[in-house]
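Consider the following assembly input.
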Amino acid sequence: MERFAAPPAEQAPSYKPIPATTSQLTFRDRLVHWRARFGMGRMHFRVAPGLHRLGAPDGTSPVFVSANYRLSFDALRTSLSGMDAWILVLDTKGVNVWCAASKGTFGTDELVRCIAETGLADRLQHRRIIVPQLGAPGVAGRQVRERTGFSVVWGPVEGRDIPAFLQAGLKATPAMRSKHFPLVERIKVTPIELEQAVLPLALVLALIAATMLVGGSPVTGSAFLRKAGPVVAAVLAGAFMTPILLPWIPFRALAAKGALVGVFCSAFTCLALGLKWPASLGWILLPTALASFLAMNFTGATTFSNPSGVRKELRYAIPAQIATAVAGLVLVFLL
Amino acid sequence: MIYLRNVATITLDDSKCNGCGECVQVCPRAVLAMAERKAHIANRDACIECGACKLNCATAALSVDSGVGCAAAMIRTVARGAIRGNRRAPPACGCSGSPGCG
């Protein structure tokens, strides 16, 4: 990204020089992707907003619009192998195209601003930009045309379909327009789910340790493990196993899916640890509530939930989760 | 994968539809389809209420309550609203400042 293009002859001098990019991922790029997946400073992995050039684009080359999130930008450029193209990066504050579109940062105003600021019209002989279809919740194609003269062509949902899309004369097949949620994508988002579960887990474990101290029972490793085991199982059930097994778990509500996986996982853990009645029931109820809650939070990462459904789910699930957790706590600590 | 049944708020006024087909192009869930030069809702339960169709409809034939569909964001909003006495604030996704939204 350090190399800059020699400005084309017709370029107005006020425009910034255009950084060059490639369609290859370096080792460092891949390292950044792993760190981003595990939430390590991912918000710092931003791409400079503005125009980038891939290969040696000219006035007839296609323009692809992207977000300034590294994973979005990299998914696009690696799909354009061997091509000469312009990449117009919007300032989405380091957020991916789809999430930024629903926030409005990947939006009509930002796109119009970027087109003007980069002098796109002066560089091109055509008036067409390819916008990822998942940007459509934020971009009104019609308004972009009215305000800039550029017509918006909706590109495929997945970058890997771009070559076929171009081959077909900028036509996306119905399959290219649909967003699915295959196993590999569900695996990719679980590290962030687990990370978000770390705080609740730490709180519950601290509570367990505190009650052991207050109750006067000797705090040994095995005594702590017998109590912590079911809770750790619940976190794995809600934040890891439920996302992975998602399509194969019965029920539609994620809270219900999480509760089911939670029941199985905590029951198995109780058996493995040899816990006795009634504590064992408590150690099933409490983790089940936790697993259900964590699974419900996965709605933010799925590609098929909707806000109305999440609202409905919360209305029923939160009281049920609280009641289950309280019942579990009573059984575990008071009986 | 399909989420809860009969909750999606998408509606289509076919008297306003001009049959341009833009909604079918932008929908990532194949909720909308064309028949006899008009759009219709072919699979309501697949709708994720992203709002792409509504924003890109030239004649305002489509309406949907779109917004942030993340449980964590909604809980946060309700909690903050309860503290500040504002129960009507729309949920705000906090992903810009923190991990999340893979």
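Confidence is low (pLDDT under 50) at residues 1-13 of chain A. Ask yourself how this observation constrains the way the partners meet.
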